[in-house]
């Protein structure tokens, strides 16, 4: 599913260079549930941005579902991002004026899916997170946990190859966090590949594989029982 070799990322500000990633090798198979953890400034967010085709590497190779992402231009990256990747963000990133159903439909609009099929797929996605009854509600009418579940439904709507979750429980209380993690585990058991970035060890421990990033390198890669 994901194959990264010799990945490096350098940021330049004037004459100053900062190497955020210093040679990452990483393979993730279809159906895995992987947590990436590390302290602030470790490079985990940079790695997530590159995995999500939101940023490009300075050097190295990145294959996503047999597509050589490292050779793509911005237009090609946007296309593969829409087709292959579902995003879940800490801040939900829902549009406040749209209903739950309309928010879930957004990535399908970008893919050019016809209206009838779009609605059916969005409703199926909402049903998978138990919120079909909230399809007409706007984000302001929902709890934080419900908003995150809507965001998960949106991520699933395109049937992506991989779901990337960036601090998906960061804004939630402990009870709602357990709810969201339960949904992610169910999705993974249903065959979805999930890569999650978190700074919380107790959240990372719930994934099947935990990758620790420090100073731009992978320093630990363990599988949980």
UniProtKB/TrEMBL annotation:
Gene Ontology molecular function: ATP binding; ATP hydrolysis activity; transmembrane transporter activity
Matching entries from Gene3D superfamilies are given as:
P-loop containing nucleotide triphosphate hydrolases
For this protein, the record's InterPro entries field holds: AAA+_ATPase, ABC_transporter-like_ATP-bd, ABC_transporter-like_CS, MacB-like_ATP-bd, P-loop_NTPase
Q: Which Gene Ontology cellular component annotation is one that this UniProt entry carries?
A: membrane protein complex
Q: Which residues form the ABC transporter domain?
A: 2-222
Taking the record's annotation, the residue ranges forming a coiled coil are none
**Keywords associated with the record:** ATP-binding, Nucleotide-binding, Transport
Report the sequence similarity comment from the record. Answer: Belongs to the ABC transporter superfamily.
Write down what this protein is called.
Macrolide ABC transporter ATP-binding protein
